Each structure stands twice: as C-alpha cells, then as structure tokens.
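FAQ: What does a multi-protein file look like?

Like this. Sequence, then tokens, then the next protein.
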Amino acid sequence: MRQLSGSNGRTVSRSQSLFNAVTRFFLALGLVFWTSTLRAQEQSASSISREVKEIFERSARAVVKIRAVDEHGKLAGTGFFIDPTGTLYTAFSVGADADDFTIELDGKEVPARQVMTDRRSGIALLKVDMPTPALPVGKSGGLEVTAPVMTIGFPLDLPKSPSYGMIAGFDRKFLGRYFSTTHLRVNLPTQRGEAGAPLLNFKGEVVGILVSSVENGSACYALPIDAAEKIRTDFVRFGEVRHGWIGINVAEAPSPLEGSRAQFSEIMPGTPAAESGAKPGDILLQVGKTPVHEPEDVIDASFFITAGDPVPITVLRGNEKMTFTVEAGFHPAAQRPPVVASPLSPQALPLGLDRTP
C-alpha cells in the first residue's frame, strides 16, 4: 500500500508539472497571438491613414469652397471639378437658388456661374472660365457594403478637411419616402458646409456626391456618381436635363417568373407605352440595360431613361419573351419637385449651408 501511495504521489507530481508547462506554453502562445493581433491592427490603421492622406493630398486641389448669396444672405458649400475646363459638381442646396457665385482656388476668389440645376437628383453644375484640376470619375455600380470611402469638404467654414467611412447600404427610400433613385448610405460624419462634397473610393475616384445628412451628421446620403453623370450627359447632349418615362405602372406578381416579380398593372393612356404592344399582366424583365427583379427596381430603371431616346423593354407574356421599343417621353416629375431628391424628414436633412451673419 505504501508503494502504491508513493507511486500515485509521483504521478500527481509529474501531471502537475506537465499541466504547468502546458499552461505556460499556451499563455506564451496567447501573448504572442495578442501581440501579433495588436501589431496587425496598428499596421492596418496606419495603412488606412496613409491611404487617406495620399488621396487627400492628390485630390484636395480639385475640391473647392463655393460662396454665394441667396435671399437669406451669404452662404458657403463645397464643390469639385469634374473636368479640366472648369465644370464643377455641387449639391442642389448650394448651387440652385443663389447668385454671385465665387470659388476659392489656390487661395484666390474666382467668379463662377450656374449652368444647370436639377431638383429631382439633388445636384447642380457650376462653371469657371479657366483651366482647372479635375477628379477622375469612378463607377458607383460596383460598390459593396463595407467598401471604404472618404470625402473632402469644408465643414463649418473651416479649412479643407478629409473624412473617412464606409458604405453602409444602398437605399431606395428613407422613413417610407422614396428617393428618385438608389442613394448610397455612408457611415461617415458630416457637418454644415459639406453639401456637394465628393465621395471618393480608395483609388481617388468620385463615386458619389454628398447631398444629405442623417442623425445629426453621424452619417450621410450620397447620390451615386453614375446617376449624376446621367444628368450631366443629358445637359451636354441637349442643353437641358431630360428625365424620361414610358407610362407603365408596375405591381408585385403573385409569384416570380424568370426571376422577376414585377408585373405590369396599368398601361396609361396617352403615354409613350400606350401603343407599344405592352399589356397588363406582362412580367417585366428588363428596361434598357437595367435588369428588373422586383417592382422597386423600376425606380432605378426609370431614372436612367432619357426623354426622346428609344428604350427597349423586355417582358415575359405566358411562355414567350418579347421586346418592345418605346420612345421615352418627359417624366411628369421633371416639372415639379420629386417625391424625394434629398430626404426632408426631421432626421434626414439636406446638408446644411454655412452662413455668414
């Protein structure tokens, strides 16, 4: 019995030593892992900081402060050059109902003039008569949730400042009210005076234009640059914006067919679609180049229609796919304020303007 007792004691002692050694090993391993993780996080943060700084230094000269006068007095906002001939984008709230525009470029005040405003999209174009720097235009259509983005603007009439955030969503409506087209919701803080600032990807390309703030500036909405470029292209082609429509109402089908739940519910009389051959009950598959899967897809498809252009419309009728070509007419909303260009609810307001007393 004594021999057995001694043997058990030595076994316990060896087990305890082994346990202690394993514990020390895993503690050391954990410390190494924690240190490596911390170092990786620091390197990642440092890398993002460098990228933001590089984009800011490369792009900042093309972003300018806009000053103007409206019925309430002096105001200031942000704009950015989109071509080397002096054309710049800004928000409708900055460039629409004002006069006596000037921009600050390289420390100088330069006169500018309004060339186009579009309430439905929420943007405006200004022009200066001189060569200018310009930001490259990217593609907003390829963005994904969590994509890193940044902006450059003039918050609170302070010097030109960068901000960093990420894409948080692609919204067609806010608090039950529809935008004129899908907007980018960005987890990026905004301040008064940043209306019209460019939203940049990490290549330094413009992917949106800041038009409204959310929840006291903690986030914002941006019009996708693809939508803004549609407006600018209209103006270049025709000297005016031509929001188009075809005159068909769409509802949700009882079940999806060919991947679409969008069903024609009404062909409005006297509209471009009235004589197209489309019929109530047709399942809508595509408008122009835009595929349709849900009735709400028609919002974006309609936004990119230009009045006067032929628009191919692909539908499913029974088991047969059919394509009709309709010459788009002018959208009724082009002559009156949109359902929503920038949300006007208490929690989502057009980005404020800086005003001088």
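And here is the next protein:
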Amino acid sequence: MWSLNHADIVMQLLAAAERLLALTGDAVTLCPNFGASTLEGA
C-alpha cells in the first residue's frame, strides 16, 4: 500500500501536463474516477 504526502503538488503537476498537451494539440481528459477528490484524503 502507498500514499501521497504531497497530493496537491501531484495534482498541480498533472494539471500542468494537461495544459501542455492541450497547447500542443494533444488535449486529454483526465479520468474522473482518479481526480482531485480521490487524492485529497491521501
């Protein structure tokens, strides 16, 4: 089992990657099952 000590930083990293992909024309949609709400309690 594992947990995240810095879930907010991980979410910022994923959001930045999502923005970069959108800017390059490779937009993605993150899975709603594994969004911010699932990391908040980690």
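Q: Is there any per-entry metadata?
A: Some entries carry free-text notes. For the entry above: Residues 38-42 have pLDDT under 50 and may be disordered.
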